[in-house]
């Protein structure tokens, strides 16, 4: 296992807690594959809990609390699975 992400799902919402790597750039490769999978499975959002230049390289951006609550409402009514 080169790298990964400790996370959990709530309906169609995906909340990332932390990332790890065992080889150089392992977490970056895992992130790219994860985002591909979340899009394929029609997740509503991926909450990284913070924004930084590293996450922005993968398309992360900040949204307002109002927008987050609207997305969460949508996510709670959706059944998604990463597996």
Account of the protein in words:
It is a single chain. The chain is α+β, with helices and mostly antiparallel strands. The chain has one domain (3-76). It has three helices and three strands, in the order ββαβαα. It has a three-stranded mixed sheet with strand order 1-2-3. β1 (3-10) and β2 form a beta hairpin. The model has no long low-confidence stretch (mean pLDDT 91).
Order of helices and strands: EEHEHH
Helix content: 25-40%
Q: Major β-sheet, in short? A: 3 strands, mixed
Report strand order across the widest sheet: 1-2-3
Gyration radius from CA atoms, angstroms: 13 Å
- Would you tell me the overall average pLDDT? 91
Beta content comes to 15-25%
Care to count the β-strands?
3
Low-confidence stretches: none
How far apart lie the N and C ends?
Answer: 17 Å
**Helix count, DSSP H or I runs of 4 or more residues:** 3
Number of domains: 1
Query: Which overall shape is indicated by the principal axes computed on the Cα atoms?
Result: globular
Structural category is alpha+beta
């Amino acid at each position: 296992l080169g790298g990964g992400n400790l996370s959990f799902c709530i309906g169609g919402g995906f909340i990332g807690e932390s990332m790890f790597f065992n080889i150089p750039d392992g977490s970056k490769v895992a992130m790219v594959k994860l985002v591909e999978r979340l899009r394929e499975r029609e997740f509503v959002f991926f909450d990284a809990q913070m924004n930084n230049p590293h996450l922005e390289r993968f398309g992360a951006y900040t949204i307002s609390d109002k927008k987050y609550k609207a997305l969460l409402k949508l996510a709670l009514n959706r059944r998604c699975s990463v597996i």
